[in-house]
């Protein structure tokens, strides 16, 4: 790749050293620029609002236009649906189809862009201006805080990104509340957001690894360094964090890898479906798990293992390795010695009839066919080092910033929906032990479920999460599984906030299969998928509930 970038105004190239010099702007310059952008966007926001006040609402689409739009989508969906029916028979067809879809997406986006430039409703302009103004304000206060507290930069790009996002959300919330009350101004919200940054800094000083931002930063430190070193966008930690958590491979390669894995699963299914027709045994016994996987798990594993972009050709061997580790097919043939009775009859010289019955032995073949689906999401802990596992956790937390890639995956709803909110009564927090447990546990809300994970750097599974939280709050029992936590706890029928709640049958394992932290009033905080609050009164948790346990 060339080390120079074309200059569209002069036709000359910009030396790399010039870009580096620009990248080394002082924090004061960045803060000043942020403030200027914030002021300019504030002016644009006011102008957009004035324009909106004078604008009549657009007329709704007529019936003809609506019908035409639906018909167009119907034909397009039918064509691609027919292609999809035969895609899994040919990976090349799959890749070509996905490339076609990508091209159509670009075309559609381009069309929308042109239309938007010609006629954009002022309401949309106001929303966009408000969004930009919010981002610029958060950016300004973040840079101002970093200038006053340089230690905030030590957390890495992801840490800075999450801190800025927290400030942005708080600022937007303050603006909405001010708008509802009618008498408050956005400037007061800005002031509140500025105070929030001071609280973030103070908390970070007291708990250097406690913040969600700092913890998530550990998840992908090496990957961040690798991605940031290759980026040409400068002066923005947000861009670096997004790049580090985004799938770097081409759509055609990722969709092709998924299609290739599905083809292997289809071949395995066909082999099992036709087993009795293609084998010659006397008796068959089948014990078969379902053949299935989630595409985001597959792509996240491949990307974490390759530590960067990859092509379909490059990961063919890895796909086979993953398939062989996920699906464990066992075919045992037992040979039994069986017999049947046979009678010989003959007549002697005197004309008397005689018979002789005896056993005839033969081999009887019994075939036992067992298929274990080890679950693709359970493999990372066994095949990855800590750094790779950290990358995998981050890709799963963000779905590679591509929720559109596999929209039917259940992970899309889980990881794009806001976390379930639950307010803990102040009376419960009077218990200092529970308050400490809750404070530690809430740091990791939103972390993905990673089988075998037991620390912020790798994320957690259910028992790893509980073990880590309690060991940070005064206990020292190490890393225990759900059954181990049950064994060291004392059963109670009157649980209090801070106790544990245990479940069975949430997946195929004997004994206790899941554990969470009871927070009172029929709620728990647990490592679901992702970490968050859950209502124990739901039918699912009620059907799997086993017991409450006390560790105090």
From TrEMBL:
- One MF term in GO for this entry? cysteine-type peptidase activity
Q: Name it.
A: C40 family peptidase
Task: List, for all copies, the residue spans of the domain called NlpC/P60.
Answer: 431-552
Q: Where is this region: Disordered?
A: 1-69
Signal sequence: where? none
Q: Output one GO BP term.
A: proteolysis
Which species does the entry assign this protein to?
Flintibacter faecis
InterPro entries, per database record? NLP_P60_dom (IPR000064), Papain-like_cys_pep_sf (IPR038765), Peptidase_C40 (IPR051202)
Q: Which UniProt keywords apply?
A: Hydrolase, Protease, Thiol protease
């Amino acid at each position: 790749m060339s080390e120079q970038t074309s200059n569209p105004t002069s036709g000359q190239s910009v030396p790399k050293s010039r870009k580096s010099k620009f990248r080394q702007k002082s924090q004061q310059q960045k803060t000043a620029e942020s403030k200027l952008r914030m002021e300019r966007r504030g002016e644009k926001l006011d102008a957009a609002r004035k324009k909106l006040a004078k604008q009549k609402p657009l007329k709704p689409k007529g019936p003809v236009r609506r019908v035409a739009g639906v018909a167009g989508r119907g034909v397009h969906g039918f064509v691609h649906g027919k292609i999809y029916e035969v895609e899994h028979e040919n990976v090349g067809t799959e890749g070509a189809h996905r490339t076609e879809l990508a091209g159509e997406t670009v075309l559609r986006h381009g069309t929308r862009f042109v239309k938007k430039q010609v006629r954009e409703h002022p309401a949309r302009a106001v929303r966009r201006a408000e969004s930009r103004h919010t981002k610029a304000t958060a950016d300004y206060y973040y840079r101002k805080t970093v200038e006053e507290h340089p230690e905030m930069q030590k957390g890495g790009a992801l840490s800075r990104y999450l801190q800025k996002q927290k400030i942005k959300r708080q600022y937007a919330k303050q603006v909405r509340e001010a708008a509802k009350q009618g008498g408050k101004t956005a400037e007061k919200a800005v002031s509140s957001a500025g105070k929030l940054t001071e609280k973030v800094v103070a908390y970070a000083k007291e708990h250097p690894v406690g913040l969600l931002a700092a913890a998530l930063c550990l998840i992908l430190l090496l990957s961040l360094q690798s991605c940031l070193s290759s980026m040409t966008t400068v002066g923005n930690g947000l861009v670096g964090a997004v790049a580090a958590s985004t799938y770097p491979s081409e759509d055609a390669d990722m969709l092709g890898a998924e299609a290739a894995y599905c083809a292997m699963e289809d071949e395995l299914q066909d082999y099992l479906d036709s087993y009795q027709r293609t084998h010659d045994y006397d008796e068959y016994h089948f014990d078969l798990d379902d053949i299935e996987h989630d595409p985001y798990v597959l792509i996240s594993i491949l990307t974490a293992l390759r530590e960067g972009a990859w092509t379909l050709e490059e990961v063919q061997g890895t796909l086979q390795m993953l398939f062989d580790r996920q699906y464990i097919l066992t075919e045992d043939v037992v040979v039994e010695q069986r017999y049947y009775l046979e009678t010989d009859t003959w007549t002697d010289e005197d004309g008397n009839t005689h018979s002789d019955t005896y056993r005839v032995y033969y081999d009887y073949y019994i075939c036992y066919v067992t298929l274990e689906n080890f679950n693709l999401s359970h493999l990372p802990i066994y095949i990855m080092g800590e750094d790779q596992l950290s990358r995998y956790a981050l890709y799963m937390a963000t779905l590679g910033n591509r929720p559109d890639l596999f929209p039917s995956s259940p992970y899309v709803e889980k990881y794009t929906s806001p976390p379930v909110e639950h307010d803990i009564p102040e009376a419960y927090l009077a218990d200092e032990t529970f308050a400490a447990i809750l404070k530690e546990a809430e740091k990791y809300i939103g972390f993905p479920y990673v089988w075998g994970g037991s620390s912020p750097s790798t994320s957690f599974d259910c028992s790893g999460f509980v073990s880590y939280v309690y060991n940070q709050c005064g206990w020292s029992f190490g890393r225990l599984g759900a059954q181990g936590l049950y064994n060291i706890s004392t059963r109670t029928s009157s649980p209090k906030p801070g106790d544990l709640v245990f479940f069975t049958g949430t997946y195929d394992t004997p004994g206790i299969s899941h554990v969470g932290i009871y927070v009172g009033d029929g709620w728990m905080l647990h490592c679901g998928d992702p970490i968050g609050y859950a209502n124990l009164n739901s039918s699912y948790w009620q059907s799997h509930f086993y017991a409450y346990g006390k560790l105090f």
